[in-house]
Structure formats: C-alpha cells, structure tokens
Design goal:
Length: 316
C-alpha cells in the first residue's frame, strides 16, 4: 500500500469557529459520497469475490472502509452493522448468517440509508431469502430509532421551549418502550471504519452501547483507523481530516483499552496494516481489526495495557 503524507498548515484547512463541526462535516461528506464515489475515504480492502457478486455495483463503488470484519460472523447470527453506510458489509454478513440469521444495519446518514435500502429486494432475490434491514439511528445511541422519532415530530413539531422539552421526554419514552436495538439481543456487532467518526464526548456511551446490546458470549469485530500517537487538538479541530477518518482516530493502545474498560474480555487485534495508510504531522494512521468478546453479564475489571502491548508491542 502506498503511504500518503499529508500536511496541515495553519490557516489553510483547520476548522475555525465559523466552520462546520465534526458531525456536520461527516454528514455532508458522506451524503456526497453516497451520490458520487470519493476514493479518499477508503483503504484498499480485499473481500470475497463470491460474496460481492450478489451486491449491486452501485453499493460496491460507494463503499468506504478500512477492513473486513465479516470473517468473524457465524451462520445463524443476529448481526448489527454499526455505521452500515451503503450496506456492503451488511449484505456480505447476510450471506454468512444465512436464512436462519438476521442482519441490522444502523446509520444516521439519510443518503447512505436510501442507497442501502433501495437494493434490499434485489439482494434478497439473488440470495433467495430476505434477512437484512436498515434502521436510522446514531451508533452511540442504539436505543433511539430516529425513524420513530421523525414520526413523533411530524405529529408534534418543535416550535417553542416547551415543545423542545416535550421532545426530550418523547425520546426517553421511545428508548424505554421501543428501543431500536434491545438489550442482549445481538450475537455479533461489526463495523467498518466508523467509530473514529463519533464525537469524543460520546465515545464512552458508544462502547457501553456495544456492550449492552450483545448477548453473553457475543462478539464485537471492529475495523477502524488508529493512530501511532495522540492526535493533537489542532488536527482534531480540522473537519476535513475528521470526516476523512484521520484526526478522530484512537491511539492504537487506547482503542484496545476502550473495549476492556467497557467490560469486554479476550480483546485482540486480529488484523493490522504493516504500513500506514496515511502519515499526518508525523503520526502514522493505519487500519486494524479488533475482536472482543462479552463474557458473563458481570462487567469485568481488567488491568490496563502495559508498555509491552502498545503499537510497537510484540502482541500486535
């Protein structure tokens, strides 16, 4: 893989107070990428050609990822694909789980959801069964179904302070009574280069949600971009680098720690690029896939990683 070195001169690309937020940049960039291919958003990943054969070309050419978490899916699984985008990983997983399994893609980008949803019948016809659905929601809040919330808003739009407060109560009611993904209902969670796009203040909740929805013994297989060292605040403020899966990257050892701190056991880096995908400001960014298992319902207290298991450690 060719390494791309990227510089970030002050004043040329770093976000200012009047620029878009990270979330706005992500929504805008991926909405555009759902309409027209953007090669800068993806690493080169080899997938099983037989699995790709049933997936429409429009989805494949607008897929953006950095790894393949699907080898860790099993026949008959209930799978949730976090940040499912155009649906490629979900449709690959659908073939692995078979007619006895089920795949749920979760994304909040309406253009990407539309791309994934409009090909459901085509893929089902080619497979001979329909076992995939796509739900609108934020991956750090797997309780709130945004399609259900939109229906509530249509009936009771927000027009003043009181209606905004009422909306907050409605959100809590939907989370409680009609959760998008129920507790302990999933065998395997997969994700392909999406966790790094979540705001830093939401990341503890993100990992807690992954842990919540998995059954005991369930697996999280997460492909993502990680950094060789801490990313500076200046780079994190750059919306272009954030939406490009760069400046939101976890430091590699802290990515592993995040799973452990959420209660997972047997956390392991199972795939890792030898050469970096990009080098920005002297920091190496590369793709890894982490496999983590949920043990008993008890949250485990695990030791933090020592110096021997960082990005340069032999265990990686």
């Amino acid at each position: 893989m060719n390494t791309k070195a990227v510089t970030s001169p002050a004043g040329s690309c770093c976000g200012t107070a009047t620029g878009p937020t990270a979330e706005e940049a992500v929504r805008s960039r991926y909405a555009s990428a759902a309409r027209e291919t953007e090669t800068a958003l993806c690493c080169s990943v080899a997938y099983d050609a037989k699995r790709l054969a049933v997936i429409p070309h429009e989805i494949i050419e607008r897929d953006y990822g950095c790894g393949d978490p699907t080898p860790f899916v099993r026949p008959g699984d209930v799978v949730v694909d976090l940040g499912s985008g155009g649906g490629k990983v979900a449709y690959i997983a659908a073939q692995i789980v078979g007619a006895a399994g089920r795949v749920i893609g979760v994304d909040c980008n309406l253009e990407m959801l539309a791309l994934a949803r409009r090909h459901r019948e085509t893929v089902a016809e080619r497979l001979g069964y329909a076992n995939v659905e796509f739900r609108c929601g934020m991956i750090q809040d797997l309780q709130l179904d945004l399609d259900l919330l939109a229906a509530e808003l249509a009936r009771s739009p927000v027009t003043d302070q009181q209606s905004w407060l009422d909306l907050r109560a409605t959100e809590e009611r939907l989370r409680r009574e009609r959760p998008m993904i129920a507790d302990a209902s999933v065998d395997c969670i997969v994700s392909n280069c999406v966790l790094n796009l979540v705001r830093q203040q939401d990341r503890s909740q993100l990992f807690a949600e992954i842990f919540r929805v998995l059954r005991s013994g369930g697996r999280a297989a997460i492909s993502d971009i990680v950094a060789s060292e801490d990313v500076s605040a200046e780079l994190r403020r750059d919306p272009e680098l954030w939406s490009g899966c760069v400046s939101g990257a976890y430091r590699e050892d802290r990515f592993v720690q995040a799973f452990e701190q959420a209660g997972f056991r047997e956390v392991e880096i199972v795939q890792r690029q030898a050469e970096p995908w990009q080098v920005v400001g002297g920091i190496e960014f590369r793709a890894v896939t982490v496999l983590a298992t949920k043990g008993t319902n008890q949250v485990l207290s695990l030791p933090t990683l020592g110096t021997g298991c960082g990005p340069q450690g032999s265990c990686c």
